[in-house]
Design a protein that fits this description.
The complex is a heterotrimer. By secondary structure, chain A is an alpha/beta fold. Chain A is built from eight helices and 22 strands. Helix content of chain C is 57%, strand content 0%. Chain C is globular. Chain C starts with a helix and ends with a helix. The chains are: A alpha/beta, B alpha/beta, C mainly alpha.
Chain lengths: 427, 771, 207
């Protein structure tokens, strides 16, 4: 039975991505008691699935390492994974949180030795790689996962595989009797950091993501570039595993579009410029990149990153929202549209097309479990009525990592203000 | 544990996770007690479980164990279980570091066991040189936050810190609060369209809104926890977080001295000088104005129409030139953009639609329209809905006249166009108001030859002496060895270099917020101010307990030096990436614990090895090097010393082992806090001891550095460039010592680099220094 | 130049966009275009357009009145609605194109012998006579629009199709003589008249 020790001076952080981790750590390192609730079995969220950051082209796992070290060492922070907040009642300084815990079947005895994974047989799509590779039914989500514990896929529970995993464990870390439960605890303030998910590219019918193998999304491309990813870091066409040297990026795939997301997702321009580097780094002069865009939104200091890519001989910018993708020769996606700078029609084939899909909030507008002010796009707006609930990161708008962390740091202070008020009132 | 308590050393060997199967645990135990001279050695089949942890806890509590070596998994694993903060403790990594890094074959058995034995000897040697870290006693809790700058950022920071229960001293140079924001007519809306908003030209979309500045000023003035200093500047800042002493002076010279815990610099921006853009003829007509002047024009209109400055004629057409002087590669122009200019111009165009009627022509000439996020894109729609015209174009020339002529290239219609308008507004960029960069001179010098350097220094000195030259005024007047103000990152912004850590600062306890840190709009500035206030109060709590700030959060160890050995060479005071060390009158270093980030760059810099931390020193690493057993030459087992940055290279090696990569059996890896802490003596000692090769693995250096301590990796690289002399004296090949940049993702590459060294040694032969 | 044309030029001196908003069906959407070009790329007849929709919108905003209204581009629209469903700003592009065409016609600015314009006129006149379209006459009027010789040639070229249609009872030769109409032709005409009034009133609100 998971127990959470909390009071109305405790801060609840919902979501353990970079925003939630930041808010939780900043508050805990200032002395506040923090409970962090994360839906996945590990922390780090979407950032843990990125290969490099713009504009430095450094590795997100580097910051993740630091943040995880901070988390491991902080006695003020309680992390609950596999958990979702289903209800939040009360007011600032006096909330009751109801949290649903999924069964994990693996306890803290797990040493991540990996013996369970060796014996189970069933394989599943690896969600860490957006389904581009397989993983076992007992698996370590990724090599940096924190908590560093193996996870059992719910689908193997009740099968022989589950029993095999249990039998292989020397440390009594697997408990097949584990069941879902619901717990309640008091909290004083809440940081809501549920983050984003990539927009479902299959909904953009003219681009054929669901029909053409060589049309992929930017989050998938990111996994592809990662040496730990499904292709071992090689940029290959899914249809025939040939090297993809001629790559097109379609910007605003879902964003700025009343058929999909009204908002601009802010990060996609920089993400594609970053991913252009992956192609150029891999294939040098043989690389041939085309970026189809409406506006290149490299905001403030990022401009020089754009300037550098513009200066590359083998990168083209086409001001156009691509009208449709059709199938050309050899499974080449063919992009059709009009370059609006002077009206030029094109029908151009590429080896691989990357859809710069936008961000949408993880939590649907229709099923928000707490009463806060939400805009048309499902992002939380700052408002009086939100009381002691403060949005952090991409729950508040489409933000890049830097701004998400900035927002989360601010949200941590807002939460601290509430619990400090409670503390003062209670002497 | 009292200071006099007898030292009792214990080693705990875990045999779980296959350690017991792969290695001879009895032999490990023997190594720890015989070679490692531990007073107590115990084995446990699963040391990290409740029972194992309790065993150690009992020994600490009842047996007086105060120095322990945990011989088990990597220091990155099971941190919570082995969190024995009340003793000196080290981790000996024989899981990821040994058994997982080596194949489970009969052939490999002997070398694998040797590896484990070595690591145990090394850790036992290390623990003997370690003490439990305790704070210095310099610390005290000082709940006073200094905020410099009374614009929207500064006011927000003040209100938010005060709201959390801290006292704020708000210093504003001018006679009024509000900064640029107080000059604005309206602000860009903060929110996006609400749920249920339809997509139609008649939809109710966000419009320019009241700035809220008057309320904010009232809130600051009415807050009992905020002490306001108008017409004042900071004339001196000395001390360290938790004990800053700050002089706040008025123009007449009246000075108040305040004790301050931490500082927020919110000094905002100045508008780029349109005089630098001759093609836009700013000086040629009063009807060609800046975006800030546009706000005043709107304010002056009252309820009536906006009139043009030259003759008071009601404006019937206005054109906005976006990114004027921004996003440019030309010398003297801004290579970045303010990021907010398009939203501002939409807002201002809407002023005309409101004041001068829908028939007033408003054209925004842009190249890439930057209206990001949900509120941004909705405001773009709002502008369009209200009839603002957007023209993707390149404005080339503006000619004053009764009707101002604007020549541009329309990029969509691909043609040259000339239009005549009543008024032109230039979207000018933000220039940070950040004070002089303490390292600007150094950077200018770095690329020069020695001769040019001398010349440049002379020019600089002459320039400094020339009273007519424009000097950037200091804002903080830090009384620091390394300059008066926050270091700049790029283009004068005092931003953090770290994407994950926007409040990372190179002057501990001093946080920049708002457009001085990065170009930003009001909403972001307010968020940023709140974030900076968070860090400022956190630093107050850290300083109160003597804990280090990011990234070695909570570390209580701090550097001290042996004065009798110090040669006053000043290397530590110059090389500290955080400007933490001052100098006294005799140029001995003066450590400021609360400014220190515990990277150990000073320790690496010290040629006479007098700087140390309680649990990390020349000796703790030196002992590990010494305790490593060097096989006789005829054994043909080389030894490779790997000094690996604990933040990136060490985790990369850990992950390599977890992913099934093999690591050379000859490698002996020692984690270091930062490569910058590497003492040359370790290299010399290792070579003298008979190590055949040495690899230093640090983070990326240079402009896009990834070193968590800014300059550590670069400093190490510079110092190692001089190691050639040592090698020459010892008559050794230069390729025996290499420095590599290793990223945390170099899971395959890091072991491969060790393998490369193995091959090099095979080629050039073993070291002749085997004893 | 027609009188209406002169008058409107005077009225909307500076802003062709306002003129379009006031006089063209769905013209108030033109300002919402963000120049992404998805409409231009989505048009199946795209390559026949001298100025694709997105460019026309930009031309309207740039005040290129004559070039837009005298263009034959909007006459190319076949009402497939591909552009409308894809437009990220939901502009009713098809309607705007027809609206522009109608407006150009009203002002007498349609290019000479623009076939679509001609067809529309023939269709309209044909339909208004009997309240329904007489397909035989419509076909023939279309063939003979460019003169007798061309009409004969075009009729012969399509004779097989005509025969097949008659065989399948899709067309009757008897229709050539008068042809049947709807029961209440007066009612239809009234309906059309009313619709015109509503449209005029709608446009008037912009004046």
């Amino acid at each position: 039975m998971t127990e959470v020790v909390a009071t109305n001076q405790t801060i609840l952080v919902v979501g353990g991505g970079i925003s939630g981790m930041t808010a939780a750590l900043e508050a805990a390192e200032t002395g506040a008691q923090v409970v962090l609730v994360e839906k996945r079995p590990y922390l780090g969220g979407r950032v843990s699935q990125l290969y490099k950051y713009f504009p430095k082209l450094c590795h997100p796992t580097c910051g993740l390492e630091i943040n995880q070290r901070r988390a491991k060492m902080n006695p003020n922070l309680t992390i609950v994974t596999g958990a979702e907040v289903s209800k939040l009642e009360g007011e600032a300084g006096d909330y009751t949180a109801t949290v649903k815990l999924s069964p994990t079947w693996v306890n803290d005895n797990c040493t991540a030795c990996g013996d369970c994974a060796k014996v189970v047989e069933a394989e599943f799509d690896d969600e860490y790689n957006y389904g581009m590779s397989k993983r076992k039914g007992a698996y370590l989500p990724h090599v940096m996962a924190h908590p560093m514990k193996y996870v059992l896929d719910p689908a193997i529970i009740g099968t022989d595989d589950a029993q095999k995993a249990k039998d292989a464990c020397k440390y009594d870390a697997i408990d097949l009797g584990d069941e879902a439960q619901e717990i309640q605890f008091p909290v004083g303030a809440v940081v809501w950091a549920t983050g984003w998910k990539p927009y479902d590219a299959a909904k953009i019918q003219p681009y054929g993501y669901d029909r053409f193998e060589n049309v992929i999304t930017n989050v998938e491309f990111e996994r592809m570039a990662d040496p730990k990813g499904p292709t071992g870091g090689k940029i290959l066409r899914p249809s025939d595993s040939k090297e993809a040297k001629n790559v097109a990026f379609i910007q605003c795939a879902g964003s700025r579009d009343r058929n999909h997301l009204y908002h601009c997702s802010r990060i996609c321009c920089m993400a594609s410029l970053k991913q252009t580097h992956y192609v150029v780094d891999a294939y040098g002069d043989d690389a041939d990149v085309s970026i189809y865009y409406i506006d290149i939104r490299t905001i403030d200091r990022f401009e020089d990153f754009y300037t550098k890519v513009q200066a590359m001989d083998n990168v083209k910018f086409i001001k156009s929202k691509v009208a449709s993708v059709t199938l050309g020769e050899n499974d080449n996606p063919c992009l059709n549209g009009v370059d609006t700078e002077g009206y030029h029609r094109y029908a151009t084939e590429h080896d691989l097309v990357v859809l710069a899909t936008g961000m949408e909030p993880s939590v649907s507008v229709d099923s928000f479990p707490v009463d806060v002010e939400i805009n048309r796009e499902g992002f939380i707006e700052p408002a009086e009525k939100n009381g002691g609930i403060f949005a952090a990161g991409c729950a508040s708008d489409a933000l890049d990592v830097n701004r998400a962390v900035q927002s989360a740091t601010g949200a941590a202070l807002k939460a601290i203000q509430v619990v400090n008020r409670v503390a003062r009132a209670e002497g | 544990m009292s200071e006099q308590a007898e030292k009792k050393y214990a080693a705990y060997i875990c045999t779980g996770c296959g350690i017991g199967d792969r290695l001879d645990a009895g032999e490990l135990e023997q190594t720890a007690s015989r070679d490692g001279r531990m007073n107590l050695v115990k084995q446990h089949e699963m040391l990290c479980n409740r029972d194992g942890v309790q065993m150690i806890r009992n020994d600490i509590d009842k047996e007086g164990v105060n120095h322990a070596v945990i011989i088990a998994c990597s220091r990155r694993a099971k941190v919570e279980a082995f969190g024995f903060n009340d003793i000196a403790m080290t981790r000996c990594n024989i899981r990821e570091g040994v058994i997982w890094a080596r194949p489970d074959t009969d052939e490999a058995k002997e070398t694998t066991q040797e590896m484990a034995n070595d690591y145990i000897r090394m850790s036992c040697g290390e623990i003997k040189q370690m003490e439990k870290p305790t704070a210095s006693g310099q610390q005290s809790r000082n709940p006073n936050v200094l905020v410099v700058g009374g614009g929207i950022t500064g006011m927000t920071a003040a209100i938010e810190a005060a709201e959390a229960g801290y006292t704020v001293h708000l210093v504003e140079k001018s006679g009024a609060l509000g900064g640029h924001a107080a000059r604005l007519h309206k602000r860009v809306p903060f929110k996006a369209a609400p749920v249920g908003t339809l997509n139609s030209p008649g939809a109710n979309l966000p419009m320019p809104e009241d700035t809220g500045i008057a309320d904010m000023i009232a809130a600051v003035e009415g807050n009992g926890n905020i002490k306001l200093y108008l017409n004042s500047t900071v004339t001196k800042t000395s001390g360290a977080p938790g004990r800053f002493s700050v002089d706040i002076s008025t123009e007449s010279g009246d000075t108040t001295t305040e004790n301050i815990g931490s500082v927020i610099q919110a000094t905002g921006f100045n508008l780029y000088d349109p005089g630098n853009l001759p093609e836009f003829s700013y000086a040629g007509s009063p009807d060609i104005i800046t975006n800030l002047e546009m706000e005043e024009l709107a304010n002056a209109a009252g309820d009536g129409p906006i009139k043009r400055p030259s003759d008071g004629k009601e404006v019937t057409s206005v054109l906005f030139v976006q990114d004027a002087g921004q996003n440019s590669t030309e010398e003297g122009r801004l290579p970045y953009d303010s990021g907010i200019g398009d939203l501002v111009s939409i807002k201002q165009a809407l002023y005309f639609k409101h004041h001068n009627g829908a028939s007033c022509d408003t054209t925004i000439c842009f190249d890439n329209l930057r209206t990001p996020g949900a509120p941004g894109e909705d405001f773009y729609r709002s502008g369009q809905k209200n009839g603002v015209i957007f023209t993707k174009s390149d404005v080339r020339e503006i000619t004053p006249g009764d009707a101002i002529s604007v020549k541009m290239h329309d990029k969509i219609l691909d043609e040259k166009v000339e239009v005549k308008v009543d008024l032109v507004v230039l979207d000018l960029g933000m220039v940070p108001n950040s004070g002089p960069d303490p390292y600007a001179a150094n950077e200018a010098l770095e690329s020069l030859s020695d001769e040019d350097k001398a010349e440049e220094l002379e020019t600089q000195a002459a320039h400094a002496a020339d009273e007519t030259s424009v000097k950037v005024e200091s804002i903080l007047n830090l009384d620091y060895r390394q300059g008066t103000d926050l270091p700049h990152l790029k283009h004068g912004f005092t931003d953090s270099h770290f994407i994950c850590f926007p409040y990372e600062t190179r002057r501990t306890g001093i946080y920049a917020a708002g457009p001085v840190r990065r170009p930003m709009d009001m909403k972001q500035a307010m968020d940023d101010a709140t974030g900076a206030a968070m860090k400022a109060i956190q630093e107050i709590e850290n300083a109160a307990q003597g804990r280090a700030a990011h990234p070695r959060v909570g570390d209580l160890s701090y550097p001290t030096f042996r004065k009798e050995g110090c040669t006053q060479c000043k290397r530590c005071t110059v090389e500290c990436p955080f400007g933490a060390i001052d100098e006294d009158e005799e140029t001995y270093p003066v450590y400021n614990e609360a400014r220190c980030r515990r990277c150990g760059t000073c320790m690496g810099a010290c040629p006479v090895r007098v700087i140390s931390f309680e649990n990390y020193s020349v000796n703790t690493v030196g002992a590990q090097i010494k305790e490593c057993e060097i096989p006789e030459e005829w054994d043909e087992k080389p030894r490779i010393l790997v000094l690996a940055c604990e933040n990136d290279a060490y985790p990369a090696l850990d992950q390599a082992a977890m992913s099934g990569e093999e690591i050379s059996p000859w490698a002996r890896v020692i984690p270091v806090r930062c490569l910058g802490s590497t003492s040359l003596s370790w290299v010399t000692d290792a070579l003298n001891n008979g190590f055949d090769g040495i690899i230093l693995m640090g983070c990326k250096r240079g402009d896009d550095y990834q070193c968590h301590f800014v300059r550590g990796s670069a400093m190490a690289n510079e110092r190692m460039a001089k190691v050639g002399d040592t090698l020459e004296t010892l008559n050794l090949e230069p390729e025996r010592v290499v420095v590599h940049e290793v990223a945390i993702t170099d899971i395959e590459r890091a072991p491969a680099l060790i393998k490369d060294m193995e091959e090099t040694i095979e080629k050039i032969g073993l070291s002749p220094f085997k004893f | 130049m027609s009188e209406t044309n002169k008058a409107t030029i005077e009225q909307y001196r500076n802003s062709f966009l306002s003129e379009v908003e006031a006089n063209v069906e769905e013209g108030e959407w033109v300002k919402m275009c963000m120049q992404c070009g998805v409409c231009s790329g989505s048009c199946p007849l795209g390559k026949h357009w001298a100025h694709p929709p997105q460019e026309i919108f930009m031309m309207i905003r740039a005040g290129k009145r004559d070039e837009v209204l005298a263009s034959d581009s909007m006459w190319m629209c076949t009402s497939c609605y591909n552009c409308v469903v894809r437009c990220p700003r939901q502009l009713p592009i098809t309607h705007i194109m027809h609206g522009l065409a109608t407006y150009a016609k009203k002002l007498g600015l349609v290019p000479q012998n623009q076939p679509t314009a001609k067809f529309a006129e023939i269709f309209w006149n044909n339909m208004m006579k009997k309240g329904r379209v007489n397909e035989l006459k419509l076909g023939l009027s279309l063939y003979f629009k460019d003169g007798f010789g061309a009409g004969i040639k075009e009729s012969l070229r399509n004779k097989d199709l005509g025969m097949k249609m008659m065989k399948a009872k899709r067309m009757a030769a008897s229709e050539f003589f008068g042809g049947h109409g709807v029961k209440d032709i007066g009612g239809v005409q009234k309906m059309i008249q009313k619709a015109q009034e509503i449209e005029d009133a709608r446009m008037k609100k912009f004046d």
